Amino acid sequence: MRRAPWILMAMMTATATATATAACGGDGGGAGDDPLPPPAPEDGFQVAMEVTVPAGEEIWLCQVSEIPGVEFTPVNHVESVQTAGVHHMDVMALQFAGVDIAHGLYDCNDVYRDYPELMDEGLILYAAQQAEQSITLPEGTVANLPGGITVMQELHFVNTTTADIEAFSKINIYRYEGDIEQQIWGGAVRDTNLNVPPGEHVEWTRCVMSDDVDLLFLSSHTHRLGRRVEVRLFDGATTGELVYENDDWATPALKSFGTEPLHLAAGTGLEFQCHFSNDTGEMVNWGFAAVDEMCQIALVFTPGYSDRRCDVVETSDGVTPD
Predict the structure, then answer these.
(1) Residue 114: which region, alpha, beta or left (left: phi > 0; alpha: psi -120 to 50)?
(2) Same domain, yes or no, for 198 and 296?
(3) Fewer CB within a 10 Å sphere, N or C end of the chain?
(4) Whether residue 172 sits in one domain with residue 77
(5) Residue 13 pLDDT > 80, yes or no?
């Protein structure tokens, strides 16, 4: 499991220059047509990314930069816009994995090769797969974002057209001024022993919570061969009610449980099934590239304790994490 204190979830695109601005900044096309102007300094800040994606090319870039300020920012609301078609995006805090990388732009393949611990120990602050999104946590619930931390913005984009694409991403992070009652935490659960043979195929994973939690958000992620993802309740022995489904691998739904969070008691959890249709004629394995596949879910919950997690206990192929 890849653990993470998710600020919220939204989507993003790529960049050759990443900027974190406390007030103004961020181009998006020039004055007057900025798709998401940054908030005033007293209200929050913006993290923005831009890049030129050459025709017919796939990019997976990691931009290392710094969150502005030195104090914690309590966050209850986030808005984002980005170029449609981003395969995946996330913003990760590096320090929690004990990784120190100089500010700049990197090939993500090189980053994960040199720092494999980021896969399990990197803390995801923000991630999504939607071109536009606005998310608000319940009143009194926040994600506490440390100021001055080094973050890595990760962007995966496949340009299938015959023209270069100017891809952009803007995230507005707003300071919460109300009374704080609780914080969020979260994480991703993934099947990294994924092998998809030609034809129709289904893989499933079951995980149980280490402690009681109230689930606020739930989403999924596959690549092109993914036709459907179903998530059901799991009581530790049998599966039950369908609580999430998605048929669009490119822009998977983010489900909010709103004012009635889904309670998961310790020892109970979720089963997620990934349905694939492999038309390549070859075995397709787990991996980051567009020609690879994935099967995973992301969840955000309260209370915000870092030791609460959904531990994998059973899989369709009998292989569980060490």
Answers:
(1) alpha
(2) yes
(3) C
(4) yes
(5) no
